[in-house]
Amino acid sequence: MSETPSSARLWATPAGIRLGPLDLIADGAARNFVLQMRAGRFHGFALRRGDRVHGYVDRCPHMGVPLAQHLDRYLTPDGDLVLCSWHGALFDPETGLCVGGPCAGQRLTPWPLAVVDGAMVTAAPSITP
Ligand code: FES
């Protein structure tokens, strides 16, 4: 008998999940990821900056909703900042710190990612703040 995956929302992923090649994301762009696991479903997004990726849980600290109302539209038009499409909160893509808008000073929740042999892989949380 197969086990039905839970519909619970997850806020983190185990380390070591391969998301695909880095080239899934154009340099300077962002992409949504939804991972269905037995324990539930995780929603996150990744930002590519050259050979690095930054990942965040897709949840705005202002009201707890996903940031993008259109698929993969997580950035300001110039690509410099992460933008929440609901009330305009702006976030630093490197740190997740809200630098403007209704949740200034709060942060996106990091989703640790690494690039291994040209592929994006979920990583263990960093122990340094
Ligand atoms: S829900 Fe993101 S700015 Fe309000």
From TrEMBL:
Residues 48-122 form the Rieske domain. This is Rieske (2Fe-2S) protein. InterPro entries: Rieske_2Fe-2S, Rieske_2Fe-2S_sf. The keyword Metal-binding applies. Keywords: 2Fe-2S, Iron, Iron-sulfur, Metal-binding. The keyword Metal-binding applies. The lineage of its organism: Bacteria, Pseudomonadati, Pseudomonadota, Alphaproteobacteria, Sphingomonadales.
